[in-house]
Write a structure and sequence with these properties.
This protein is an alpha/beta fold. 33% of the residues lie in helices and 27% in strands.
């Protein structure tokens, strides 16, 4: 990357700092991001090279057509915040009570805006087009990505790339995973119906509490004894609700939780095993039950073609040792997988941790901070990822 381009990135990073801090101070929850989208569109409007559209009011799509023919590639950022009361101590803390950018989406947005500014200035060297996708509602299934995919936003896109800040890595480190990098995420609700009565006469009842407790233990046997350890999922019962009295056995109980896996076959098999187990236990005790699933995001799989592009680009434009290859996938989920089900794509993690700056807390924490030096790294990463479409520098 030549000196002139590096200077453009440095200048864009200074503006990205302003963008990031404004968005951080004015967060919007998932599916309510119109004010954030309005701000993005307004700040990008001076860049006459961009064709800006709003397929849904809480999103922004900006397209840069290069001076030369070529394919369309896409870069994506998520823009929504979380329902948390901020306790980071930043001078630009959230001004919205109970809402905070605690997952770095403000930084993702500012990085992509900065990349758009730089690439507009490199348009004469661009062979092809870049689509900048500012996407709502990553945090809440079914997610904003699915809506945009269903609307055809990536129908003309050959490859797509996304970034996420990573507070457990220092600034200057970029992490890439081959294949699966995040898990699918599906939630379930189990309703258990027994027969209530007085706590002194359990023989006349069908106790949903003891039956539910048996289910909790039995369901963990799925992971321990029914699934190949090499593809073991996470099956968590996070809610067990029943009754509200000291001496009354309730009529019903509710169990709820989440299933996460990096394997699509496991994702399909575990619900079948769960239904068999809970129905068997309920029947054995004279109770009834049913289970309802809320399908979330698919397994996130990085494509070998776009991964090769990313490895080459980062190796060429960053110092040796910048790129680290992860050996394990995360059990978090990410709706970038919706794009990857449609077209080849790669998702990378940008280090943003710095103990001296208090950037040590993980995402989804009210104390979450980033080292803002990561903004320049993110902008440069975006430019590097699409550098194959730029003629030789």
């Amino acid at each position: 990357m030549n000196h002139a381009t590096e200077q453009l990135i440095t200048a864009a990073a200074e503006e990205a700092l302003r963008w990031r801090r404004y968005i951080h101070a004015h967060p919007d929850l998932s599916f309510q991001e119109k004010p954030t989208a309005d701000y993005i569109a307004r700040e990008l409007s001076p860049f006459a090279e961009l064709e800006i559209s709003r397929p849904v009011e809480n999103s922004v799509i900006a397209v840069l057509h290069g001076a030369h023919p070529g394919p369309m590639w896409a870069l994506r950022a998520d823009i929504d915040a979380l329902p948390l009361q901020e306790e980071s101590g930043e001078t630009f803390c959230s001004t919205v009570p109970g809402v905070m950018h605690a997952c770095g989406h403000d930084a993702h947005t500012a990085m992509l805006m900065g990349a758009a500014k730089v690439l507009c200035q490199l348009r004469n060297r661009l062979h092809g087009s870049i689509k900048f996708i500012f996407q709502p509602a990553e945090e809440v299934p079914p997610g904003g990505a699915r809506e945009l995919v269903d609307m055809g936003v990536v129908d003309d896109v050959q490859h797509i790339f996304g970034l996420h800040v990573f507070p457990t890595s220092p600034v200057g480190v970029i992490t890439l995973k081959e294949g699966a990098y995040v898990a699918s995420s599906d939630n379930f609700d189990i309703t258990l119906r027994g027969k209530g009565g007085h706590g002194s006469m359990p023989q006349h009842c069908v106790d949903p509490v003891t039956i539910g407790a048996e289910m909790v233990g039995a369901l963990q046997q799925i992971v321990a004894r029914n699934i190949d350890p090499g593809t073991a999922p996470v099956l968590t019962i996070a809610t067990f609700q029943s009754g509200d009295s000291y001496n009354v056995i309730p009529d019903s109980a509710r169990l709820a939780g989440t299933l996460r896996t990096h394997n699509q076959q496991v994702r399909e098999t575990v619900p079948q095993l769960m239904s068999r187990i809970i129905n068997g236990i309920a029947a054995a005790h004279g109770a009834e039950c049913d289970i309802q699933w809320q399908k979330g995001y698919a397994v996130g799989n990085n494509h070998e073609v776009t991964n090769a592009i990313a490895r080459e680009a980062i190796g060429r434009h960053f110092p040796a040792g910048t790129l680290q290859l992860a050996d394990k996938a995360l059990f978090g989920s990410e709706d970038f997988s919706s794009y990857q089900e449609k077209i080849p794509g790669t998702f990378l993690f940008i280090g943003c941790g710095n103990k001296e700056k208090g950037a040590t807390w993980n995402v989804h924490n009210p104390h979450f901070r980033i080292d803002e030096d990561a903004l320049a790294v993110g902008i440069k990463t975006h430019i590097a990822l699409v550098s194959q479409l730029l003629n030789d520098e």
